Amino acid sequence: MFDWLIVGAGFAGATLAERIATVRGEKVCVIDRRDHVGGNAYDELDAAGLLIHRYGPHIFHTNSAAVFEHLSQFTRWRAYEHRVLARMADGMLVPMPINRTTVNRLNGLSLTSEEEVEAFFSAQAEPVEEIRTSEDVVVSRVGRKLYETFFRGYTRKQWGLDPSELDRSVTSRVPTRADNDDRYFTDTHQFMPADGYTAMFRKMLDHPNITVMTSTDYAAVKDSIPHRRMVWTGPVDEFFGFRFGKLPYRSLTFRHETHDQEWFQPVGTVNYPGEEVPFTRVSEYKHLTGQAHPKTSITYEFPAAEGDPYYPVPRPENAALYKQYEALADATQDVWFVGRLATYRYYNMDQVVAQALATFRRIETTLPRGDGGQNLVAAAD
Ligand SMILES: Cc1cc2nc3c(=O)[nH]c(=O)nc-3n(C[C@H](O)[C@H](O)[C@H](O)COP(=O)(O)OP(=O)(O)OC[C@H]3O[C@@H](n4cnc5c(N)ncnc54)[C@H](O)[C@@H]3O)c2cc1C
């Protein structure tokens, strides 16, 4: 009999498993349908011995000291600030997010102050009465030309939708800068786990109270693993048998390649905003990991409608559908819904860890330790 069954061994599941096992001393079984722990952050050595991310590049960044300190128990860190260049159709590379260098290089200008760049943006910007969509966000800030160059094609490829059909939150994630800062993120903590994400996950889950079963789907074992309570980090609609319909997700396919040369591109990620190529970006892991190797491995990302659920699609009707599932989840006793898929939120890794730690605090205040609880499997019978 396990005190807890945790479905999913990504950041949400592993964070809660460790807390419950260590702090509450309760027995936890963690299952994942994939053949590994780590969820989407999983990394592994490829055939050439290069550390790659199977599900695309994952860069850790956070403003939360609590999240950073929590994870620091399980890994050493390598300082890393991610930089992204966008490749224009003519091959020119310019910094992304848009900054002063981007504006100067694209327009043959030599603006030197933030005031001049802000004046340039203002002259280009189009007034928008109410900023509702992802198109409104960009056009009202920097105008239509920069919007079309960097955002329209990229977003259409990434989401299969025009930015005018997407919630403002998508392009709001990407800032526009008037200075020369060419870092992709500006968070106070920007690091990569020194030995990789998978090593960090293994350490988190290495506890006598934790049993890990990979290649194990919940549907196949739900009646055979006795447990009292559950943490669900899979898709919330799947848990409820898709009873209100499927929540839409955007997926990706990855093309991993190894090249017999030391470097492939000047920075960790090069974006391809144009619709003339079907992929959105190419990432080269050695920039992220600091690994020294005579060869280099890269990943192309091709957005797809079908496949693993990666990105909840932020549109009002999807939020409304999620609300229906959320109400069911709230009414389901002894099951805690945590993580990107279970709460249908476009969360980064640090936000998922913060959500899991907050959930643990709620568990601690609502469930007395070692109270036994009811047997969920018996209850289902
Ligand atoms: C391409 C890409 C790049 C990203 N880059 C970054 C980045 O640079 N920085 C950042 O902070 N965040 C990034 N993210 C987001 C990051 O991946 C997520 O925030 C994080 O992995 C979410 O953790 P999670 O535990 O909620 O979900 P997941 O990592 O998805 O883990 C859920 C696990 O549950 C398992 N599961 C689901 N259903 C079942 C079932 N029925 N039975 C058994 N197992 C099940 C799944 O197999 C999965 O392993 C990126 C995401 C993607 C897709």
TrEMBL record:
Cofactor(s) the protein needs: FAD
Q: Which UniProt keywords apply?
A: FAD, Flavoprotein, Isomerase
Q: Does the keyword Chaperone apply?
A: no
At the top level, the lineage of the source is: Bacteria
Q: Which Gene3D superfamilies match?
A: NAD(P)-binding Rossmann-like Domain (3.40.50.720)
User: What Gene Ontology terms describe where this protein resides (cellular component)?
Assistant: cytosol
Any one Gene Ontology MF annotation carried by this entry is: flavin adenine dinucleotide binding
Q: Where is the UDP-galactopyranose mutase C-terminal domain?
A: 150-346
Task: List, alphabetically, the Pfam families matched.
Answer: GLF, NAD_binding_8
Family from the record: Belongs to the UDP-galactopyranose/dTDP-fucopyranose mutase family.
What is the protein's name according to its record?
A: UDP-galactopyranose mutase
Q: Which organism is it from?
A: Muricoccus roseus
